[in-house]
Amino acid sequence: MLADYPLKYLALHWPNIRSMGWAAIRNATPITRPGTLPELPVHHSMHVPALNNELLDQYVAWTGAPANRYRTEMPAHFCSHWAMPMLAKLGSLAPYNLLSLLNQGLRMQIHKPLNRDEAIALRGSLMDVSDDGDKVRIHTRVQASNPKGELAMVIDSYSTVPRAKPAGKSKPAKREEHEFNTAGNWDAEEEDGLAFAMLTGDFNPIHTIKAVGKRTRFKSCILHGFGQLARTWEVLNNAGYSAADLDVRWIKPLPLPNPGMQVQTSTAKDSDGYTQLRLAAADGTLHMVGRFK
């Protein structure tokens, strides 16, 4: 599998590697990380040049989408590549160790597609940082516009930094009960963590280095949350669904390999008009939950 992703892709990911690496190194120790939280919200702008079409084609193939689906447009979930430098820059403004940061959830609102061969203008905001005693919660937002200045996407990213000594367990949120059908399946293969990194530039060792994964309680690498989202999104597309507003939470890490992942959708919409979404392993364990419309 990895032979399909040449090392030349690393040069395309240099902005991601540099920004994410610098943020992690800078915030790793109290000496170099910011001492205080800036007044919020904080805003930054960034220009992303047109993305490499060969890389896009390889990414589309990895997600399980047919090649003609994205012949002129980019998958919305490829924000896992172009939004990462901005998210890293914003996250580094918080005075916490980003090496322990965990992605918790994501909301994507799609107003219009981003086209291939076009640059992307980003406006990023560190919206909120709160400490509930158990963990620090960080909310960042990225707005993407096309060269005409038209808003294409709004991405709200939610992450946490766990405390060394948790204050106590929080009560789980009360959920509506729904019946679910399986829209389709996909397989999480052993090398998917490294493959996703070669396609997006996110080389977090927990996803890519087996020796690191074996030292965790999962005894293996785990798949990126954005990788779970991309594969699930394309299963939904293949089943005839479309999403302009999607909100998901990652509730349990996904160890690799993990064949027979089930993409499940509710048989009825909720009170707000959303279809409920679940990603379940073959044994029924839920790894991602959310809703879309």
Automatic annotation (TrEMBL):
<feature type="domain" description="MaoC-like">
    <location>
        <begin position="188"/>
        <end position="242"/>
    </location>
</feature>
<dbReference type="Pfam" id="PF01575">
    <property type="entry name" value="MaoC_dehydratas"/>
</dbReference>
<protein>
    <submittedName>
        <fullName>MaoC family dehydratase</fullName>
    </submittedName>
</protein>
<dbReference type="InterPro" id="IPR002539">
    <property type="entry name" value="MaoC-like_dom"/>
</dbReference>
<dbReference type="InterPro" id="IPR029069">
    <property type="entry name" value="HotDog_dom_sf"/>
</dbReference>
